[in-house]
Amino acid sequence: MTRLLLTALALTLAAPAHADTLVDNVNGITLDKDGKLLRFTGLVIDKDGKVKELLDRKDKRPERPDFKEDGKGRTLIPGLIDAHGHVMGLGFQLMLLDLSETNSLAEAQAAIRKYAADNPEMPWIIGSGWNQERWGLGRFPTAADLDAAVPNRPVWLERVDGHAGWANTAAMTAAKVTAASKSPDGGRIEIVGGKPSGVFVDAAMSLVDSAKPKPLARDLDRALYLAQQKLLEQGVTTIADMGTSILDWQAFRRAGDKKQLAVRILSYGGDIDNMAMIAGSEPTPWLYDDRLRMVGVKLYLDGALGSRGAWLKAPYSDAPGQTGLPLLTPAQLRNKMVRASMDKFQVTIHAIGDAANAEALDAIADLTADLPGERRWRIEHAQVIDPADIARFASLKVIASMQPVHQTSDRLMAEARLGPDRLKGAYAWRSLQAAGARIAFGSDVPVESANPFAGLAAAISRTDAAGQPFGGWRPEEAVSRETALDGFTRTAAYGGFAEDRIGTLMPGMRADFLIVETDPMLASPDEIRRMIPLETWIGGYRYYKKEASGGGR
Amino acid sequence: MTRLLLTALALTLAAPAHADTLVDNVNGITLDKDGKLLRFTGLVIDKDGKVKELLDRKDKRPERPDFKEDGKGRTLIPGLIDAHGHVMGLGFQLMLLDLSETNSLAEAQAAIRKYAADNPEMPWIIGSGWNQERWGLGRFPTAADLDAAVPNRPVWLERVDGHAGWANTAAMTAAKVTAASKSPDGGRIEIVGGKPSGVFVDAAMSLVDSAKPKPLARDLDRALYLAQQKLLEQGVTTIADMGTSILDWQAFRRAGDKKQLAVRILSYGGDIDNMAMIAGSEPTPWLYDDRLRMVGVKLYLDGALGSRGAWLKAPYSDAPGQTGLPLLTPAQLRNKMVRASMDKFQVTIHAIGDAANAEALDAIADLTADLPGERRWRIEHAQVIDPADIARFASLKVIASMQPVHQTSDRLMAEARLGPDRLKGAYAWRSLQAAGARIAFGSDVPVESANPFAGLAAAISRTDAAGQPFGGWRPEEAVSRETALDGFTRTAAYGGFAEDRIGTLMPGMRADFLIVETDPMLASPDEIRRMIPLETWIGGYRYYKKEASGGGR
């Protein structure tokens, strides 16, 4: 049982801020501004919701704080920052059909059938989370597999990585897809027996996407509400939203305007059009007491490994003719980077394959000298890197924005797709760090769960939820506990130009923190993975409290 | 010489609000909440920028106000509210080529030639304001007329009423318009000698509009800045923006976020799509200390008289075959009205011709009983009304949102278009009032100047800037000074659900007011028309002050 305080948000924020709050008797942990671990037993919060003072056991407490909270000796850690997620994607995952826990095609078909029966009014059945690898299917699913579950209404389901979609015959009919349809640039219609199989990869997804009914504003608002609830529950106090659309942004603003935005969102516009439409000719100011800012733009340079859209230097080991797809020409990529940078937007590039990472680095090398200001280039995922390119992350000062849980979910697939030789540069956290690069950690929610504790555990152990493989997959790439925490706090903030206000609990920073049961600097990876926040505080207010009697989510 | 204080806005708004301000020794005028004229000599403003108290000569003054302003016996009136304008249209008019002061085709051609020479970097020459009636041309201008001025770059110029566009050959080429092009529904490509003449009416304008380069965000921001400057200078403290696009809205928000929004904007989304994308499933809250709110949606039911797009019951007197165009079917209009109303948005319908007004009233009559809440239906312009329909404005509680200066600009054209018999219901302010309808007054800027004093003068005199015709055009439709002021203050606020915060200077209302040289309750129409605000105050801050030595604009 959990108790969610989000509904009380408007009230809380509207109430006059109390003056000093003392959170005392805690096992407090934070990194300082240089990344050194620091411990404390009390935290004083000022009337603006910022940290006023960290107290040692021997330090004098304020005499009459307006509000006092007894931590009862529990551990207090900084609010965790997800450096790469999709806020509305999470929200819609919570609203729509979620297949991410299905373990076979038959299980998925049963879930689809049940959801359709439960939601007779929905014009389309829309969902996500399927993964033919997890099912052990050995092939993509087909429209016929879906027709068997729901023949009479369009069904359209995104793959777990968001890089492929699966349609039934009714959806393809609604989208006017026929055997004569052509794959668009940067996409692929899967063909079986001379006609579309029902699976659409990358840019080809838009063929069906464009036919599905658009969500209404109230759907977006509901999705944002659900996403915030989930993030608060999981201890995420800030999330970088990677690829914000104008519709997403309007939902963020509606929530902010109504004082219903609790979780901080660092927004990156979905390509240049959304960036410019939303923020204009420069990043927005921080809005709603540092709860929302559009800081930059997200560009897509390739797809994902699962759908073989990731752009590799050499062909896939399990599909010899294919190397994946670059989604931008060199000129397109550089033009977009210059356009955004000239207006002081931060640029982050989705690059999964080693060819995409090399090209992103090349582009950054080409442009860095001629662009003004501090750029803080980012590469999202940086999953498969040619070892020869690793040092370039440091020399070009590129932030590697990586998602530890991807490694544990992908490892078997990565082995198949890449073969043994290319694994050296795959999910190479420690190598990047050793080379001097900064790493921000995230979840890629809804591709994975937003749960950052799973990420912390994977980062230090290279093991999955079942603790597999024993000793970790390529364990030499695991990072220290300090580095893992840094990636989910201090460097995640730095990666979004936010280190002057969040990411640590040093005086002057926003008082975003969690109360947890176990000290993550001492607990086993398995204990860390099972950690559930008892309380989530943002800006000096408690937004979430787990009920004492509860059994977690 | 004028001094504009808008640049100091960020500073002003960021400064801690002072406590009480006393504006004393004024000839103060306001309507009270019931519309009765009230006089005062002192005004006390509280720390939130609201009116705290109105003082009579004999009333005791606050002992130690934080700020004291001596009105030196000058007149203080409520800030004027423009119930119908186009904020970004005004801004772009100020940035782009403005032909509204040209008196002949030759003058216009010279202005176009000069503007093109002055702006060699502009890919297209874009502008507005032409009026072949004012030129006495007796026909629409043609592409050849434009080619004579600028042959080598696309030129695209909107007519003064925004209901027609004039392209040169280069613009038509860029837009791929040929003799084979078809007029779209609700629009007309003017044909001369079997091919497009260069003039595109109503929906046909989009053929060329869609080919012109889109303005950048920085252009929008600049336009908004210029529009605000102009409005402050003219004494407009609030404007209803009729047909806000998502791009307009984003510019408003950027200004608000940077504390650079001075003038209050009551926004009506341009049709349902913009409304829903911007505000979601209900009107926005008041934002930025009551400076911005999306309250409703603007629907277009017909075009304008000048371009013969206004939808008439009987054919135009000067074009016997034509009755103008309805832009929505009965079902479309009602569907949009229901969709917006169910989400509590206010609905306002552009209706100029008598057929359009009758249809708008029919639709309102059809729907009122079944929709929840207080709807405050509005009809924009309500220019030509079948006398049989006038009483329906009152019985259906429809606000007539009218623009007095249109009457003076249009009268000769209206006589030609309508013939003598139909003039009885044209610009029929007094008849509407006598029937019991409420009238909000505005400018329709940039179709006319935003200057509300010209509107006040026209409202009470039915004469134009030259005082013509002597005694007024159909003077029986002139309104009293109180009604004119009411239309530009109290009822303009009521028309946007804003009467609880602006429109009068009663205690509790925002302290939006002007200092002027002459008492508009005593001055002649001609004196009123020439009035220029000496100071413009919004929310208790002075944003504009005319320099004492100045000669006005």
TrEMBL record, chains A, B:
Pfam families, A to Z: Amidohydro_3
GO molecular function list: hydrolase activity, acting on carbon-nitrogen (but not peptide) bonds
Keywords: Hydrolase, Signal
Top-level taxon of the source organism: Bacteria
Statement: the UniProt record of this protein carries the keyword Signal: yes
Domain Amidohydrolase, chain residue ranges per copy: 70-540
Signal peptide boundaries: 1-19
SUPFAM superfamilies given in the database record: Composite domain of metallo-dependent hydrolases, Metallo-dependent hydrolases
PANTHER family (alphabetical): IMIDAZOLONEPROPIONASE, PROTEIN LONG AFTER FAR-RED 3
The name this protein goes by in its record: Metal-dependent hydrolase
